[in-house]
Every structure is written in C-alpha cells, then in structure tokens.
Amino acid sequence: MRLLHTSDWHLGKRLFDKERYDVFENFLTWLLSTIRKERVDTLIVAGDIFDTAVPTNKSLRLYYDFLSHLSGSGCRHVVIVSGNHDSP
After folding, report:
1. Hey, what domains does the chain have and what are their CATH numbers?
2. Angle at which helices 57-70 and 21-37 pack, to 10 degrees?
3. 68 with 31: CB under 8 angstroms?
4. Given this model, what pLDDT does residue 86 score?
5. Residues 4, 35: contact at Cβ < 8 Å?
6. Active-site option among 5, 10, 77, 85
7. Residue 43: which H helix or E strand, with range?
8. Which of 16, 44, 63, 66 is the most exposed place for a label (fewest CB within 10 A)?
9. What is the pLDDT of residues 19-50, one digit of tens each?
10. Dihedral sign, CA of 32, 37, 43, 49?
11. What local confidence, expressed as pLDDT, does residue 26 receive?
C-alpha cells in the first residue's frame, strides 16, 4: 500500500494584501499529478486545509474540485483530519 501524507495547505491564506489562489491551484494540480504518477492508494491530510474557520468560496471550490478529480486518480482512500484553522 502506498501512502502520501500532507498537511497545512492553508487554502485562502493571503500574503500581506495579495491573494494566492493561483499558488494553491498549482499545488493541488501538482499533488494530484504526484498521486497518479506514484500510484498512491491512500492520501492522508493532517489538518489545516483552510486558513480560517470560514473559508472563502474560492477556497472551497479549489478543495472540492481537488476531491472530485482525486476520485478518478486511482487513490482509493482519503483520510482528512481537521486542524486548528479548520471549521469546528
């Protein structure tokens, strides 16, 4: 079984006054590509997917689009644990 562990995505975090949605989208595209290339069976995301307890619509879209694409990647299991920045 091949596992991939990641954490602390902080989707939606701004750098000073700059939005970084392109950076987050590039990361998620790279992650999905790596999962396919390495034939990962299980993805573990250990917290802080979002940067705030109330993520923006753009952040949610990135997250749900990623999960949607992940379902066709061959990855059979996803374990997601919330972190201190995620919604209770």
Report:
1. 3-81 (3.30.750)
2. 10
3. no
4. 78
5. yes
6. 85
7. strand 42-46
8. 16
9. 999 999 999 999 999 999 999 999 999 989 99
10. negative
11. 98
